[in-house]
Each structure stands twice: as C-alpha cells, then as structure tokens.
Amino acid sequence: MNEVHWIKGKTDNCYLVTNGTKAVLVDTASGECYDTVFAECSKYDLQLIVLTHVHFDHAENATKLAKHFNVPVAFHEADSELFESFDKQPMKSYGLVGKVVLGMSLKVLRNTVVEKPENTFFIKEGDSLSQYGIDAKIIELPGHTNGSVGVDIEGGRLIVGDALDNWISPATGHLYTDLAALKSSAAKIMSLGPRTLYYGHGKPTENKFKLLK
Asked: Which helix H or strand E contains 68, and what residues bound it?
C-alpha cells in the first residue's frame, strides 16, 4: 500500500512515497536540508527522484542524492532551462503574502544555481510511476513554472508542488510565471474532488482552498 512520508525542510517540504521497501522521492528540499532528506531516503530502496519544478528549494539536493542512491531524476521538459538560471522564467506574485514570499525568495534565487543531474528524463501528463514500485501518475500543473507537475497517488493523495501553497491558509500558489496557467492548474486540482493535498510549503490539508479568480 502506498504511503506518503512528509519530510519537513526549513520552509520547504519534500515527500517520500513508499510501497513496502520501495520509494520515490518527490522534491529534494534546499541544500541546508540535505542530511535530513538523506537520512529518510536511506530507510528505503529509493527508485526515483521526481521534481515538481526546478527551483532551488525543491531541486538543490537532486544531483547529490541521485549520485549517492544511483537513481534517475525526472522533471518536465519545460523546466529544463531553469537549471541555467531562474531568470529564464521570471517570477511574479499576487497579494501581501506573495509579495513577502517573493522578496525573500529572490534573494536566494539570484545566488543559487541548481546543478543539473547527469541521469535524467522528462515526465508529462499521465505518466505512470508503477515501474518504480509506486501506484501514482504525473499531473501537469503549470503556472508557478512552465513545467510544474504534481504527483497523484492512488488512494486520494496529491503532491501539488507550488501550484498551491499553505503559508497561512490553503490557496492558489502566490508566486507564478504565468498567472492564467496557475489559475487553471488550481481549478484542475479542485476539480479532482476528495484528495489530501501535500504542499511544497505548509501543512497537508484536504482539497479545500482559496481559488484565485
């Protein structure tokens, strides 16, 4: 049976999706959290790393973990350019929460280059993770970045990356590169019905959140 293990970073989250001894790591947190993430991954037979998007707080540990555990790293092709620079997809925000978070994020984004792993492949809407021992599929959720994805896990669990956030209360993600796409992705999540949502930032909740109109 699939289980989702929440790994808390400093302000970011990543998740181990397990089925018995096998596991897939979804996001890797920021560099300062490496030891914590490594320790949790070491408890399982890690098969794959999935990145919901290529920002430092989700992808900074990907190369190091992939090398140690000898596993591939999967992400959407539209986010490939973010390994060069986050400026390839400039970030904007809405609301007071968004303004504060963006201000804090930009300071680090400008000084952090995410190293691209050597063993990678692209994922897209509908791709199954069954060959890695997990009953889950990829769902495309663009808007925060052009290639943002989520992981829809059998049993009603959905890892949403930064398409949504729960900084204060569950809501459409406050940072975006494409606002129209972000709104569409949030509506897509809501339309899925009963789910437990696992955010890149904030505590998990049920599929009830403030939808940005």
From this structure: helix 62-69
